[in-house]
Amino acid sequence: MKEKTDVLQGTLALMVLKTLDVLGPLHGYGIARRIEQISGDLLAVNQGTLYPVLLKLEQEGSIASDWGVSDNHRKARFYRLTRSGRKQLETETQSWEQTAAIIGRFFDVKAEDLK
Amino acid sequence: MRGLRRFFRRLTSWVTARRDERRLRAEIEEHLALQTAENIRAGMSPAEARRQAALKFGAVEAMKERYREQRGVPAVERLIQDTRHALRRLRMAPAFTIATVLILALGIGATTSIFTLVHAVMLKSLPVAKPGELYRLGKQSNCCYYGQYSFDKEFSLVSYDLYKYLRDNTKGFAELAAFQASLQTAPAAFGVRRPGSSEAARSYGGEFVSGNYFSMFGIGGFAGRMLTPSDDQPSAQPVAVMSYRLWQEAYGSDPSVIGGIFTLNEKPFTVVGITPPGFFGDTLLRSPPDFFLPLNSESYVEVDADLDKYNVHWLDLIGRIQAGVDPAGIEAQMRVELKQWLFQHWSEMSATDRARFPQQTLYLTPGGAGITAMREQYGRWLQILMTIAGIVLLIVCANVANLMLIRGLERRRQTSLSMALGAPVSRVLREPLIESVALSLFGGAIGLAIAFAGTRLILQFAFRSVTGVAGVPIAPSPSMPVLLFAFATSLLTGIAFGSAPAWIATRVDPIEALRGANRSIIRAGSFPRKALVALQAALSLALLSAAGLLTTALQRLEHQDFGFEQDGRIVANFNARLAGYRTDQLPTLYRRIHDAIANIPAVSSAALCLYAPPLSGSGSLVYVDGRPAPGTGDDNSSRWDRVTPEYFAIVGTPIVKGRGITEEDTADSQKITVINEAFARRFFAKEDPIGKRFRPLPGASIVFEIVGVARNDRYFTHGLNRPTGPMFFLPEAQADYTRPNIGALFLHSIVIQTRPGASVPAAAIGQAMTSVDPNLPVTSMRTLREQIAGEFTQQRLIARLTSFFGILSLVLASIGLYGVTAYNAGRRVGEIGVRIALGAARGDVLRLVLRGAFGLILIGLLIGLPLTFAAVRLLDSQLYGMSPYNPAVTLGAVLALALAALAASFIPAVRASRISPLDALRTE
């Protein structure tokens, strides 16, 4: 159970970084909406879980935040990618793709290939 | 790297916690508002839109909790939160808090004040540089002079010549210093005067030390300079170093003292420097020295100098070893040197010395604490007091644990509710623990104040200071180790009395508790409380018995038959040595003092003596004429005193056989002596001692003829528990003033008998002495009764402290019993109401409650009696011959406990018996 949330948190952090990389500064709701749209149901259950992840990333210095004004003229907290965040995104994307490629190759292997 | 950055961010965000919390709330609000707006656009009603938004967001509180965990330092935060909560709860129960803190403060204060003494006397090093490098000669501290070439056990004292031999040949020492071995409690006294001042000489302690004494200790002067080896030469100018205390108290830190001339025993010395404030010399003494003089000035200031006598051992040694040198190697080398030195003096050695030559040895022991005479003298009773204070602390813990338990029971519903709502056990456990630690720390803080006052009081009682003379160098104010001790004690106490209640709190069955604890028939959890009360009763019984035994022993000591006539007898002390008298002037001086005192109208007679009762004087050996020399195992020692003719009549000792000392016994007549009955029994068991002769040394030219036997009055020869040993009394007029046996020629005391019904003012005696010589002050004066009682100061202090602790423990145990009885009676209100409604008489209810209380006390007695018998064995050495198993004392302690228990349980019992059945049933 705990492990599953850890994996989710890790992937969630990567999704947040990617979203901010693609779309530029966004507020929490915006990020949540975006991830929801792309990932289907993954975040539909608990949008609230996004905020501890945002805090962790900010503490690590990967993202920064400022107060701004949202589309409906409300005060909102806007998150943006920092330089070190961009670097982190690059390395993690690479390693993720590597991992995915390896896992993919394992899944492609059929019994007769190993004979 | 990233982890580190995150940690610092957590630390800073912990400080900004409140702002972060607001920010999170704003973000959530924003998030929900945006989602709601979108839902409305999708066609939902506003209420439904908001509901769906909240559902989608998930559990807000759970998320907040996780958010908080990401932020800050949660463990510390929770601790602070819990502490704040605990303090708030304590504030809400002021009566409980104040009572608990005070009880704790008493326990911690008592323990800490005793520990202050233990630390100062038993544990502390000298205030010198690197005390760990210091080694001293001797396993035990030895007093003060020894005049042979052989020791019984070890060479723990050395002569000046032997010191020089060891110093020059032992290379393992960076410095090896020698200094005069001090008497049991005080250094040798000097009569000190500033030339040109009209005041009489004042008596201050002084010590002869080697020139490298201060450099060995690594002590620099507070002002001026310290002694150097060049000061310690036979031809050097006489110089002295003064203590900071004397400089400050007697001379107001006058800078002209440094470089100024002072006379010590009428010999001029230049004061070259002042010691640093904390320095008290090489030995913790009741009264540390105020002057340090070079060893070589001993022959300048003393008439019968010991400096050049090869076989007079009067110096202690402490050396600083060179870094990396093994002390065992130095010790082995010094043993060889000792033998070599002894061999050089073979021709001067007696037959006994030569026979004992092979066994002669020496020991080096760690010397960082200096000469530990006080440690040996007070170790035993400090150990006893520390044990007693520890028991008091245990009782305090038991008592406070009980209060905490009752408090925990009252909070049961709340605890159950928290547990039912999912509070983790660790959190529930922490609460009472934090509460108790907070309480004990408060108690510790107040306890420190109590300890300070207590230590001052004990110091005053134990080492009664004489004005003008240095007091014992033990500061009552808490030092760092004492502070740490108090803190550790408080913390341990808190954990000890807090953990049991905490543990019990978690064992509550929530449903049972919520259903209403009042109705439950099974009084669950009452066992620990009862056990604690029984334990307190057992411990107080042990303490009360100890107090009873010590007090009884003291009373037996004080009220024993001393034999002396104590009413209307005064003892005045003086010291002619300090006024610079020569021995040939003494007979005239004594005559003049006697006449001046005897002429005071209220005085009926006066006598001078070397030692006044109950002190037994110096030691001597006895060789009876016409008998073979005593074997090595035979004890042929005796004490002796030198007195003037009226002595026996004044102290009230009758002569039981023969005659006393008279005016006819003069320097020209036959040398005579009067012995006591113990002397007669030891040396003349079956013979008539009158007319027999003995000598102090075999073949000595001096011989004493026994002319009388005095009643065996109570002199303290070998400690308070041994009977009076053999003594002989010599007439002052027959003292040999040509022999340089100086110490024994200077009489110390005047015993004075006043006329019946008259009182002698102290001023009259002072005036009489001044009329003889204005430079000869009375150093102290008290009645013979006070003089005898003064021998028991230490015993009285222990007995009083133990009694105080005993009564304290009894009060605490009573409070504990009262608490438990009242609480139990309170919980049984319903039951008692039913009993009364069904026809039980008031007396029945009274008995019911009292039975419960006395059951506990009975169990306490059952545990306490064996405990008491085990504990009082510790006291054996302090009881002076009384058996530690004293039925009267034990019975008294049991009765005291029973009475206190009755008093403590009677109020709740009476209150229970007055319960109205109607009210009782209505309370449910």
Oligomer: heterodimer
Uncertain stretches of chain B:
none
Mean pLDDT of chain B: 83
Characterize the biggest β-sheet of chain A.
3 strands, antiparallel
Count of separate structural domains of chain A: 1
Please give the domain count of chain B. Answer: 4
CATH architecture of chain A: Orthogonal Bundle
Helix fraction of chain A by DSSP (H/I, runs of at least 4): 55-70%
Task: Sum this structure up briefly.
Chain A has 115 residues and is an alpha+beta fold. Chain A has helices at 2-23, 28-39, 50-60, 83-108, and strands spanning 26-27, 63-69, 75-81.
Task: Spell out the blueprint of helices and strands.
The complex is a heterodimer of chains A (115) and B (924).
Chain A: H1 2-23, E1 26-27, H2 28-39, H3 50-60, E2 63-69, E3 75-81, H4 83-108
Antiparallel strand pairs in A: 1-3, 2-3
Chain B: H1 2-15, H2 17-41, H3 46-57, H4 60-70, H5 74-92, H6 94-123, E1 134-137, H7 160-169, E2 173-180, E3 188-193, E4 202-209, H8 213-217, E5 223-224, E6 239-242, H9 244-251, E7 261-264, E8 267-274, E9 291-294, H10 298-301, E10 315-321, H11 327-344, H12 351-356, E11 364-366, H13 373-410, H14 412-420, H15 425-462, H16 480-506, H17 510-516, H18 526-558, E12 569-574, H19 586-598, E13 603-609, E14 618-621, E15 623-624, E16 637-643, H20 647-651, E17 655-658, E18 672-676, H21 677-683, E19 693-695, E20 704-710, E21 727-731, E22 749-754, H22 762-772, E23 778-783, H23 784-789, H24 793-827, H25 829-837, H26 842-872, H27 887-913, H28 917-922
Parallel strand pairs in B: 4-9, 6-8, 16-21, 18-20
Antiparallel strand pairs in B: 1-10, 1-11, 2-10, 3-4, 3-7, 5-8, 6-9, 7-8, 12-22, 12-23, 13-22, 14-16, 15-19, 17-20, 18-21, 19-20
Helix pairs in contact in B: 2-3, 5-15, 6-13, 6-15, 6-16, 7-11, 13-16, 13-18, 13-24, 14-17, 15-16, 18-24, 18-26, 18-27, 19-22, 24-26, 24-27, 26-27
